[in-house]
Amino acid sequence: MKKTISFKSLIVLFSIVSFISCEIEPLDSAIDLDALNQNNSNNPNENGSTGGVSTGDYWPTALNNQWVLERDGVTQQPLKIIGTETFNTKLYYKFEEVTDGTGGNSVTAYSFLNKNNGDYTYKVDNTTLDIGGLTGTQTGFEYIILKDYLDVNGTWSGSYTQTTTYTGIPPIVLTVNYQGTILEKNATLTVPSGNYSNVIKCRIVLNVSNQGTTSTTTTDYWYAKDVGPIKSVTTSGGTTTTSDLISYILN
After folding, report:
1. Is the alpha carbon torsion for 110, 85, 123, 147 positive or negative?
2. Across residues 197-218, what is the average pLDDT?
3. CA distances from 80 to 20, 67, 110, 112, 139 (A)
4. Which in 21, 38, 108, 212 has the greatest CB count within 10 A?
5. Are 4 and 141 a contacting pair, CB within 8 Å?
6. Contact, 56 vs 50, CB < 8 A?
7. Domain holding 95: CATH number?
8. Helix (H) / strand (E) containing 85
9. pLDDT value at position 108?
């Protein structure tokens, strides 16, 4: 008997759309797992950017800083900085481990943030999965989520691969191509936690592919200077999800 699983259910994309909460997307189409290749390349590619001249701090990073957001009206686990780690000589700020049990599924991982001359790089460690009764792991990834020095309409892009391995199923390799665009600068925005100025709005488009099947996720993010992420709106597979900042603590 052939085993099949939705392509979208393989894409556990950790993104700031849910501010370190993961999105397990609805089932769209089935992939024949017996036909997938056994490629297990699992190293996330780095953009290699050296940054520019930063225009300010759009995600303050200090021990015990935390942000609490609600996703579609439901309060999420606090996004809290608990320490630092070094990867390839670069310093990353480590967030508290997140466990997401959306829809009866379970996804657990640590995530990190690196800041370098106005480049903000988001990194997720290997992820533990329990999706629809299938247990497994998904290899880590990282990509640049913001370049605060770019002008409006400025863009950046990159790619990475992920390997998802479920017990008893051949490894599934996903290729992710992304593009970021600055949409607004010096904007103002009101969310439940207050009214903010000096806001940058950017858009990240992720195109995830495997064996000729592609899924696209588009997310708009708002970052307030000296505060951090305050809002995101994600559209994927005809579904829109909104996250808003409801409180924060900075040290």
Report:
1. positive
2. 92
3. 10, 7, 11, 11, 22
4. 21
5. no
6. no
7. 2.40.360
8. strand 79-87
9. 80
Q: How far apart are CA 191 and CA 243, in angstroms?
A: 10
Q: 172 lies in which domain range? A: 4-249
Token pair in block for residue 8: 């979208």
And the tokens for 93? 């700020």
Domain count, the chain: 1
Place of tokens 């708009």: 220
Position 144 confidence tier, pLDDT thresholds 50, 70, 90: very high
Tell me, what's the pLDDT at 39? 31
CA-nearest of 76, 81, 135, 82 to 107 is: 135
> pTM here?
0.81
**pLDDT above 50 for 56:** yes
Written as one letter, the residue type at 110 is Y
Instruction: Please tell me the distance from the alpha carbon of residue 156 to that of residue 151, in angstroms, as a whole number.
Output: 12
